[in-house]
Amino acid sequence: MSHIQPFTINIKDAELNAIKSRLESVRYTNEISPRNEDMGLSVDYVKGLIEYWKNDYDWRKVEKKLNAIPQFQTKIDGQNIHFVHVKSDVEGATPLLLTHGWPASFIEYVDIIDQLVNPEEHGGKKEDAFHVVIPSVPGFAFSGPTEEPGWNRYRIAKAWGELMRRLGYDKYIAAGNDVGSLVSPEVGRFNKDHVLGVHVTQVFSFPSGNAGEIEKLSDEEKQQLQMLQWFEASLSGYQKLQQSKPQNIAHALADSPVAQLSWSSQLFGEAVDKEFILTNVMLYWLTNTGGSSARLYYEDAHAEVPTEPTTTPLGLSNFGFDFQSIRSFADRDHENIVFWKKHQEGGHFSAQMTPDLLIADLREFASIVR
After folding, report:
1. Which CATH superfamily is domain 8-21+39-204+222-369 in?
2. Tens digits of per-residue pLDDT, 90-102?
3. Coil, helix or strand for 270?
4. Residues 289-334: pLDDT tens digits?
5. Which end of the chain has fewer CB atoms within 10 angstroms, the N or the C?
6. DSSP β-bridge partners for residue 81
7. From residue 257, how far is each of 244, 306, 335 by CA, in Å?
8. How far is it, in rounded angstroms, from Cα 154 to Cα 183?
């Protein structure tokens, strides 16, 4: 199937009732007292989310909201691909391909679509308008589960190039967060004649191990490296498991909505609202893609990695308490960085936490590379 067809979310009542039944019989774990935050999510935090899920969260309201946005599906390289596609009424608007991360989904960007498509209604200029394309990453939500190996960032990037070709976009910007910050530079690598520029919220460039490399860093960069080392030591357990044995956690994620909730919430934390957390969890649960989304980390860890730096114009917007991108390493892996901005505010989910800053940066970056 190479054609594109409309897509509507339609979850059966029986599936929603089954979730509610499971949530009514949760068995909670115990924890030590006083609680050690370094061990992970507290019982009280998880209980609070589950109570909200049972008593206040309204999937039908969310479903109606999402179905008001044009959604489609197509098959690329043997995999069903779900995507949002919203065109601006502004003639000459710039196509913008947005790729979400883990443990999020396409809804990461849903709340900023109107600002991107209709800038004049939100403090922008006519020339700031974008046509917006937001695909679900293969293995995530309605683009999953994946059923064959090999869906790493490079294969996804090639699929995104084909998707944009099918949509009739010859020139476009590729942007993303988290997984999207891994995929988008590769979209630029494989489709350099069509990608005007790549905008990311993290540049995942690390020390190479070469002698003297660390000593050459500025004092600020050394502080950023210390934060990366802290994250690696304290918060990267999910990443190591998903890179090595993703099927181990997949069994729990497929069987228990509470497992999916707690596994996802380790990165969501309290910085985003409960509805955003639970909608992402619901999308994974209802499509049984907790395991297949985790497999992306394994596929990436076992992929053949290009050795040449990217050359497509690259821009970074780094936010607050998030992965700290280090310019010295970024320049090694991307030889055409044209935009580099650090924000004190925000965090990992900038489209939710600091949308105005993200939108302003996307507009500024587009003005540079158009």
Report:
1. Alpha/Beta hydrolase fold, catalytic domain (3.40.50.1820)
2. 999 999 999 999 9
3. coil
4. 999 999 999 999 999 999 999 999 999 999 998 988 999 999 999 9
5. N
6. 74
7. 23, 38, 44
8. 7
